[in-house]
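Checklist before submission:
- one chain only
- standard amino acids only
- sequence pasted in full

Submission:
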Amino acid sequence: MERGLFKEALQDCNTTISINSGYAPFYFVRAEVYNRLGEYDNTLGDLTTVLKLSPDYVLGYVYRSMMYNWLGDHDKALEDLTTAVTMKPDYVLGYYHRGNTNLSIGQYGKAIADFSKAIALDPENAYVYINRGTTYYRINKFDYAIADFSKTLALDPNTPTAHFNRGDVYLKMGKARQAASDFDAACKMGHRNACRSLMVLGRSRDMQNNR
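Returned file contents:
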């Protein structure tokens, strides 16, 4: 039923664009409709048209980068995000997404630099700390990862992912008690993986106690 509604929305968008084909926001709306329908090549095409019509629309580069990432073209995603932060050097969202892209392709040093820039611009953004902490975890800088996940929780205590990730780091460091505490907190917030990790950790303790 929802797909049918988006099909109707697509027809409306097509009609509107046929009347005024030079107005960028119409293509932006249609790109979102295409995205909801899973027509990703068409989504990308409309976002490209948006940027041809409005080359100074910074958010457009971020949205197109997300589509490039989804389609596996990380180089073009990075190019768009670099364009965005070049046009707007204080653009937190641009650094955040570029950091995510660098993280996804294993460019950890560049990811940390991007997340750190985003944090410098917006130090109260709890979620950037999560991603920088994840990057530190990937390169075995566990103390830095713990610090970032803890900062996230200081800013927003109701963040189960931060509890789960910090618990994972504690477990890697051999600190089972702290790990269990974080897994328990995340589990109570509905984080299913944390519930599983807590159960596995409990079983491991039982096995050790019964030796």
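Reviewer check: The longest helix spans residues 2-19.
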